[in-house]
Specification:
This is C3H1-type domain-containing protein. GO terms for molecular function: methyltransferase activity; zinc ion binding. Keywords: Metal-binding, Methyltransferase, S-adenosyl-L-methionine, Transferase, Zinc, Zinc-finger. Belongs to the class I-like SAM-binding methyltransferase superfamily. RNA M5U methyltransferase family. The chain is an alpha+beta fold. It folds into 5 domains: 128 residues, no CATH class; 58 residues, no CATH class; 136 residues, Alpha-Beta Plaits; 162 residues, OB fold (Dihydrolipoamide Acetyltransferase, E2P) (Beta Barrel), CATH 2.40.50; 206 residues, no CATH class. It contains 19 helices and 29 strands. The strands form 8 sheets. A 7-stranded mixed β-sheet has the order 15-14-13-16-17-18-19. Strands 4-11-10-5-7-6 form a 6-stranded antiparallel β-sheet. α10 crosses α11 and α15 packs parallel to α19. The chain is globular and about 75 Å long. The structure holds S-adenosylmethionine.
Length: 780
Amino acid sequence: MAASSPTETLNPPSTLTNHLQTNGQDSSDKPTQQPSNIQSADLIEPSQKRKRVDTPEDNPEGPKSSLHPLWKTSLCSYFRRSNGSCSHGESCRYAHGEGELRQRADGTWDPTSERAKEMLKTENGERIEGTGESVLRENDEVMMTEAFAEESCSEPALAKCLVNLPMKWSSDNLRSFLGEQGILYKSAKKKKGMIVGFVSFENAEQVKSGVEEMDGKFVGNKKLKVADVTPRPFEKKNKVPLPPAYGTQQNLKPATASDSADVSESLSGFEDDDPTNDSLMPGSSDLKGRSVRNAVTPLAHLPYVDQLEHKKNTLVQMLKKLTRNARKACPNGVSLPEWILKSREIGGLPCNLEGILESPQVNGYRNKCEFSVGYSLQGKPTVGFLLGNFREGVTAVEEPVNCPNVSGIACKYAAIFQEFLQHSGLPIWNRLNNTGFWRQLTVREGRAPAKGTGIESTRADTVEVLLMVQVCTKGFDDELTNSELQRMAEAFSVGASADSSSLPLTALVLQDHQGISNAAPADCPLHSLPIPKAKSDSILEAANDVVEARIHDYISNLRFSISPTAFFQVNTLAAEKLYALAGDWASLGPDTLLFDICCGTGTIGLTLAHRVGMVVGIEMNASAVSDALRNAQINGIKNCRFICAKAEDVMGSLLKEYLNGPQKQDEISDSSGKIDEEIAKAEENDSSENTPGPEVSSGLELEYGERVLEFSDNGNQEFENQLQKRGTSESGNTPMHQFKNVVAIVDPPRVGLHPTVSNRELYIMRGVFYIQNFGFHIYT
Ligand SMILES: C[S@@+](CC[C@H](N)C(=O)[O-])C[C@H]1O[C@@H](n2cnc3c(N)ncnc32)[C@H](O)[C@@H]1O
């Protein structure tokens, strides 16, 4: 069971990345371009739609079969459009709603149905960059906003976009492919990491034969689609106009020769682009009806109860698939596990599904939003969310208007930053050629404690705001950079105080990231920026260093201190409900040892600490561990220990230690005096400028109430040695504290946790696990 975030799609994603998904309920959102393999009733021409009488082509088996072979395998568009009425009534061959829909003979579902979309999600899920959530799109839509064909292709009719190419292909691969197919063309371009490529032709004849040859051809197991290419609205002229932020390019100190190229070259995403290229996109009609609201909250058009129903159905499908796959994976001759056998009694589910917990707050509940910086479809520097998936060539960013999950405060800061960028002398990050300065704005909000009992606090209680601006300073002149950053800080300060409700602004942090994707590693340098006083030139002394740049939030009346990049549940109030339920399910008590696996800032373990004998949190991010230690201290919680390591590296040893090995009870609970030292040590190791991440993550164990063990990045063996050494030399003959109930909670599951722990299988799902004999058993 999961606390539900309204209007958001199910968890992966984080990774969820950037992906466009239509809401799947309203056919008006569908693009005009459809893949050739779609056979929805919606695709039949209006004139044909009334002909619901079976034809010989429709039903090759003729009168032999009482039901049409495609009976109810497509959704009825009349039924959908006319709000549930269809003149054919029950005799209609098409499904009246998802409930009636049948699977097709080839195992697929009507591609316009929710089931098909959800299956696609499961297979191709990616995180939305802006939200860290997973949304997926149907496979029949493509947008391109910043790809370039050759100069001579100013005639868009001579350019085509190929969709579904292997992501790893470069332009060379595409050219070889076209050569092998005997396709005549003028130029071919493809960027690694995308599934789209561009081909331009010499003449209409080449276009025609090229399209015939390519459309529907399989590359691997993917069917190629050919889409039209049209210039973006603001780039219809032959020359690409200068976006405002590039107008001062001459001010910049070039890092490489290519950085000093002219503007149109710097906008190009392809390694061999001509500087005078036009910007093209496939099928501008695809953009109709697209909105950032659909991209970020694809279920927002549904009432909340329907969103929950939709999510539950999705979960049911996924869980059934899990059972099916597990059954298939069981080798012949090996008896099926009990849960698979029992699944038959509960409709193929691997466990009972209780349902979804409602979020206490439905709108504006996110306490963290990551806004991308980029150009809108109209070419305007924009701070918001990507309108689609980079993988599919979409780089357009639109303002976060009407996104119900985004708070008003976050929207306001995005608008302030956007206004500042319109006049900045530094360029916006270009995702295609990986150049530019301004990349991302993260807004994190901290709440005041809940006021009294029985009154649920809301995000309106926001009293702290931390802004983290991601830039890439490489190659830019220090003086210009510094003055722009100062102007930016002023803009935030002035904008915050000018707001009618005077927005809180607690800390301003700069994240200097040079990587290709905006997902910065844990050790990415952070710098605190002073926040100037509004309407004055004086500079405040606040937020002098990154350690102090933090916000606070409350879960179950515990105060949590959160550093700029540490994970914290984005829906605080829903998290509170979720954790309490997890605690109930786990039948916690004084004899319970609770493992909080992937504990982040320690929220799960610390909120449940008063219900157990001991909490052991395991977390690979040193900064989060440092926060967890600090949070234990702030809340006076002593029966806990946090270990900075990859869970898969240490779980086996920890289980041995706690289930088999000797351990002194006083070692567990005595925390006096050591916590400050440990936090200091953690922060020292977390100091992003001088500490490499991996060594810290796997090499440092931070224990609340015990000494800090340090060892090299040598993984499990060394960790085990240390534990063994401690077990014999420090614990002496004192009888170990026996925990009768050992429980692990993990949220969310991680791929890294899947492999074996001490040669036992580890089944990880979001949830609560009983640990018995070194094995993990799903507790439902
Ligand atoms: C989404 S956060 C959840 C944190 C916490 N459970 C909560 O609900 O607030 C996931 C955390 O898992 C950590 N993590 C990811 N993979 C891990 C691994 N293999 N071992 C330990 N920690 C891991 C990440 O650093 C991150 O802090």
